[in-house]
Write a structure and sequence with these properties.
Layout lengths: L8 E6 L6 H17 L3 E6 L4 H8 L3 E4 L10 H8 L9 H8 L1 H10 L8 E4 H6 L7 E5 L8 E4 L20 E6 L4 E8 L2 E9 L7 H5 L5 E3 L6 H17 L5 E9 L4 E8 L9 H8 L4 H16 L17
Parallel strand pairs: 1-2, 1-3
Antiparallel strand pairs: 4-7, 5-6, 5-7, 8-9, 8-11, 9-10, 11-12
Helix pairs in contact: 1-10
Length: 325
């Protein structure tokens, strides 16, 4: 009996050029290993500026895009793959570009009725010079992921985040400043347009930063989150709305905050290429629904292949483990 991906060549794009390169290397390794277990011929491609030439020579059946951050997740690599007419996983050019630009995606989400924080874009030197809104607030890079370039300015702080004016800042001159929403950190995976479940993220750090996301023991995940039913349902609903509003496909992850004292929930952003590391949230949510890591990778790959070829790889492209809530 052949394995689901027997005879198919999958190029796994990993590494890349962004500040999230190290995370992508881990996501790519885990997905490539799973694809090999599923019987695929796998080529690991550390994506550089010569990506188009490399892929044109390889001619894979499908590309598994395990890149994170700028260039790999913001529509640029997606444009290369469209030009080469290669099927690829996750979102297309427009959805990827929109979701990576936090300010633009917030405008689209707000217009679609998704509750988002207030705030806006400011020049980083202006934010470093003086408070642009009363604390507490959050200042963050407008087009980075994995909590890179994020500062929380609390009430009673000595001043604004001076690091934004440093010459070492490489994340652009515009930063997004939003009111800080106290309460619970939540995440919802969305697969084929349907929300999976809600995870509450608990960490001893100031917030769910890079180390909390990827260091062993950096955070604790409660799956499913212990929330009032109406709040749980709202997190699912907002995440599905956001996925649809941005034109996403495949698997995404929405990050939310829930002020359980004032019963306020906002959606912070949509991640179009969620992490696939051993500590990542989407594989954990899939597992909670009875979908193993290899089955999740298979579905993501089949979903991409089916868009570019007649038929599909597996016997069915139905979403595994989805059940009515």
């Amino acid at each position: 009996m052949s394995l689901p991906l027997s005879g198919h060549h999958v190029a796994v794009l990993l590494g890349g050029l962004s500040s999230e390169r190290e995370v992508s290397l881990v996501s790519g390794r885990e997905c490539a290993d799973a694809l090999e277990r599923l019987g695929a011929k796998v080529t690991r491609v550390d994506a550089g500026r010569d990506l188009a030439q490399v892929l044109a020579k390889l001619k894979p059946d499908v590309c598994f895009n395990a890149l994170h951050g700028a260039w790999g997740e913001d529509g640029c690599v997606q444009g290369i793959l469209e030009t080469l007419a290669l099927p690829y996983t996750h979102c297309g050019v427009l959805a990827s570009a929109l979701a990576m630009d936090k300010a633009k995606s917030k405008a689209v989400l707000a217009a679609a009725g998704v509750d988002v924080p207030g705030g806006g874009l400011y020049n980083r030197f202006e934010v470093a010079r003086d408070h642009v809104m009363p604390p507490p607030y959050v200042a963050k890079a407008n087009a980075e992921g994995s909590s890179v370039g994020v500062f929380i300015v609390r009430e009673g702080s000595n001043g604004p985040p001076l690091q934004l004016a440093d010459a070492s800042w490489t994340f652009g001159d515009e930063v997004l400043v939003e009111p800080f929403i106290r309460g619970k950190e939540l995440a919802v995976g969305v697969m084929a347009g349907k929300a999976m479940t809600v995870t509450e993220i608990v960490t001893d750090r100031e917030f769910y930063d890079y180390d909390a996301k990827y260091a062993e023991g950096g955070s604790k995940h409660i799956v499913p989150a212990d929330l009032p039913r109406h709040a749980f349902e709202k997190a699912l609903r907002l995440s599905e709305m956001a996925h649809a509003a941005l034109g996403c496909r495949g698997v995404t992850r929405s990050d939310l905050r829930y002020d359980d004292i004032n019963d306020i929930m906002v959606l912070l952003e949509v991640n179009t290429q969620p992490g696939m590391t051993p500590t990542s949230l989407v594989p954990e949510q899939a597992a909670a629904q009875g979908v193993g890591f290899d089955e999740l990778v298979l579905w993501i790959t089949e979903d991409a292949y089916a868009r570019g070829h007649a038929g599909g790889i597996a016997s069915s492209s139905e979403t595994p483990g989805q059940s009515a809530r």
